Amino acid sequence: MEVQLIKIEKRNDVSRSIYFLTPVLAIFLTLFGGGIIFYILGFNPIEALKFFFITPISDLYGLSELLVKATPLCLIAIGLSFCFKSNNWNIGAEGQLIFGGIVGGGVALLFYNHDGFYVLPVIILSGAIGGMLFAMIPAILKTYFNTNEILVSLMLVYVAKLLLDYLVVGPWSNPEGFNFPETRQFSESARMPILFEGLRIHAGIFITLITVFLSWLILYKTYLGFQIKVSGLSLKTAKYAGYKGKTMIIIVFMISGACAGLAGVGEITGPIGQLHRNISPDYGFTAIIVAFLGRLNPVGIIFASLIVALTYLGAETAQIFLQVPKYTGQVFQGMILFFLLGSDYLLFFKIKFLGLKKNEL
Amino acid sequence: MNTKLKVSEISKIYPGCIANDRVSLEFGSGKIYALLGENGAGKSTLVKILSGVVKPDAGEVFLNNESIKLNSPLDAKKNNIGMVFQHFNLFETLSVFENLSIDSDKKDKELKVLVNDILKKYNFKIDLDIPVLNLSAGQKQKVEIIRCLIRNPKVLIMDEPTSVLTEQETDDLFISLKQFSKDGILIIYITHKLKEVLSLCDEVAVMRKGKVVSVSNTIDEKIESLANKMVGENLNTIKKKINNFKNNEEILKISNLNFKSDDPYETNLNNLNLSLKKGECLGIAGISGNGQNELFQILSGEIITEGTSIMFRNKEIGKLNPRERREYLMAFSPEDRISQAAVPELKIYENVALNNFKSSNFFEKGLVNEKKIKEHSKKILSNFSVNTDNVELKSQFLSGGNLQKLIIGRELITSPELLVCFNPTWGLDVGAINYIHETLIQINEQGKSSILISTDNDELLKLSDRICVIYKGKLSKIMNADTVTAEKLGILMGGGSID
């Protein structure tokens, strides 16, 4: 039997423009792959893709919805970029989002019959702190007990989910709510201001934009950002330069957790207005895709969050018009990641064919 | 069963270095052969060629007078050449027997009988059913050896097998190896430990800079003669003029320093004592792997020790990290210039910013002062004749010599009182080596001190004022460089004692 010998080699220099263009390529490949799937399901692929990606944002309401979904995705992804850039694999943003929501929601319930300008800032702040504290668990366990942060942060997602479940069914459930698993509606002062009458887009978008700007500042213009960059490229060098590795791990997790917590509190004080079981359609997990699609770059992440948010909307429209389950949205998200990782592999490595060889196994 | 293995005119060239230069050697069964040489002498390349991992550019391998092609590790196995590498290739969570059966095409029942025979024959005591992670390093090595024995090897190659073993385990290994040899297996033993060569092997081939420099019977050799052959005969050629110390000001003092590592591949340091005067260069010689790496990290602060164990200009610095030590005017040039001293993906000016001082003002109030860093980098590039003036260039595009100039320049431009460097010239061309050597002599002339940890004895004798030898994590007494002879260094590097 003859076999083709293959050798995989690292490419030394990858052009910067191609590095930022491959995500775009991945998106086109996803559209193509999605078209094939729709075709197999018996739809006209062009029509179906139009329902999926054009129809949802062809009116003002749709655009507002796009921003409503992109707001938390972008915020979480920005936070995650701090972790990922420094080689810390925080997979539990979903848990940090929920825990931030729980803490912020708890404070909101405390103030349910209060009015005043101070209520919302206090809630937002407590949500951020909640997410931050929750993210510090895997960070501290990693630095002092050498645990694996991927595992710990991921498992803590389920802890947060079950805690939320318990609270909305038990102690925090609405006393006038006929035992529905949800809390009271928050008071008006505890809600994010709506930007336009009749649309759901809320002031949370400003929190996201400010965070993006601050992140850019920290990552590219400060000593902390420089240390994060060096640690991500070579831990050996970071040690040699004398950077405090442990402190940095904790700081990046704190930033990342605070961002996820902010996203959680933005959701419950924004579009939702109370706590119930499903305060997040897996924003925390999807944001991982957003972070990588945006190349861990603040501007890139803004664009990536809009595109991934569109898959959420597209799935809803497709469910209505094409009667396909809304989980097709997740199929598209998965395809984006798949094609991105695939094209990255070909970007960073080249495959060499060494010719045929007799296999004498 | 007589086995003859012959390598003939083997050459292997890597970019920038000749790893094997027309190497010819003959081996016959019934004897144990040592292949001796420093790191980078070419012995690993030769072994990789014999085990099919690397293909030679020229030359042939003959087994029992027949030319054999070794294009893959599989070919080596088919020709009954077995190999035990220094780092074990075992699945830690699988049992011993599972590890053996993965690699074998025999049925489990047959294999079990075979393995039990081997265990009995060589008196190995290993429980086949426990997971490998519960074994000691010596036992893991035995599993690797059994894996080779299953295939009835004609040739068994052992690569630095004792680096992770205790003394008792080493003795056991030697007994087994002698028994294998009696049973007709040809054994090639790769090492840089001279004592082991003398106590175990019958013949010894010494390699240096890719060439075989000597083949002899071990009976005719002594530790010193082997050490000389290994590091080069021209030991006392060029020397720097010895400093006449105007002042005897002590700048660095290490007293009773111990370091115990959790990692079996690292060397423990025992009871280190040394002192360094202003304007002096202290050379630390030794065969690599005797604790140089750990010593460098202790000096740089990558390994933190008790505060009082290291005094620098009368301050306790043992507890300080590298950045804090730099504030006290220490500078460091590590051995691994490519991925530790600099980051290849970073631009030159970003790599310069790694050596950050309070007074350098690279980062003011936590913000990056790019202009300042770039100015500073330009100064380094021109003062240390690095072959570019583009500070935006990624450092991966610098040649080894230019990268090392950049690193030394970055460390020296702040006028530190002490520079610690570890093999600063490995892999560089002659021009760059001379430049680095001149720079190191220059800083001593300016009254600054240096510690030179190096495996290159020519370099040490050229640059040092005083020299000591590190062996198995212990320092020899410190000698004035003009009293050091090739013989003395040879004895000390091989673990002997003088006077």
Percent range for helical residues of chain B?
25-40%
**Uncertain runs of chain A:** none
Q: Mind describing the biggest β-sheet of chain B?
A: 7 strands, mixed
Give unreliable regions of chain B as ranges: 234-239
CATH class of chain A: Mainly Alpha
What is the beta-strand fraction of chain A? 5-15%
Cα distance spanning the termini of chain A: 9 Å
Task: List strands and helices in order, with pairings.
The complex is a heterodimer of chains A (361) and B (499).
Chain A: E1 2-10, H1 16-40, H2 45-53, H3 60-85, H4 93-110, H5 119-145, H6 149-169, H7 204-221, H8 223-233, H9 235-241, H10 245-272, H11 283-293, H12 298-322, H13 328-348, E2 349-358
Antiparallel strand pairs in A: 1-2
Chain B: E1 4-14, E2 17-28, E3 32-36, H1 43-50, E4 58-63, E5 66-68, H2 73-78, E6 81-84, H3 96-102, H4 108-121, H5 137-149, E7 155-159, H6 167-182, E8 186-191, H7 194-200, E9 203-208, E10 211-217, H8 223-231, E11 250-259, E12 269-277, E13 281-285, H9 292-300, E14 310-312, E15 315-316, H10 322-327, E16 330-333, H11 348-352, E17 363-364, E18 367-368, H12 370-383, H13 400-412, E19 418-422, H14 430-445, E20 449-453, H15 457-463, E21 466-471, E22 474-475, E23 479-480, H16 486-493
Parallel strand pairs in B: 3-8, 3-9, 6-7, 7-8, 13-20, 13-21, 16-19, 19-20
Antiparallel strand pairs in B: 1-2, 1-4, 4-5, 9-10, 11-12, 11-14, 14-15, 17-18, 21-22, 21-23
Helix pairs in contact in B: 8-16, 12-13, 13-14
Fold and architecture overview:
The complex is a heterodimer of chains A (361) and B (499). Chain A is 68% helix and 5% strand. Chain A is built from 13 helices and two strands. Chain A has a two-stranded antiparallel ribbon with strand order 1-2. Chain B is an alpha/beta fold and 499 residues long. Chain B has two domains: 4-231, Rossmann fold; 250-493, Rossmann fold (3-Layer(aba) Sandwich), CATH 3.40.50. Chain B is built from 16 helices and 23 strands. Chain B has helices at 43-50, 73-78, 96-102, 108-121, 137-149, 167-182, 194-200, 223-231, 292-300, 322-327, 348-352, 370-383, 400-412, 430-445, 457-463, 486-493; strands spanning 4-14, 17-28, 32-36, 58-63, 66-68, 81-84, 155-159, 186-191, 203-208, 211-217, 250-259, 269-277, 281-285, 310-312, 315-316, 330-333, 363-364, 367-368, 418-422, 449-453, 466-471, 474-475, 479-480. In chain B, strand 17 and strand 18 (367-368) form a beta hairpin. Mean pLDDT of chain B is 86; it is low at 234-239. Classes of the chains: A mainly alpha (361), B alpha/beta (499). Chains A and B meet through helix 8 and helix 9 of A and helix 10 and strand 18 of B.
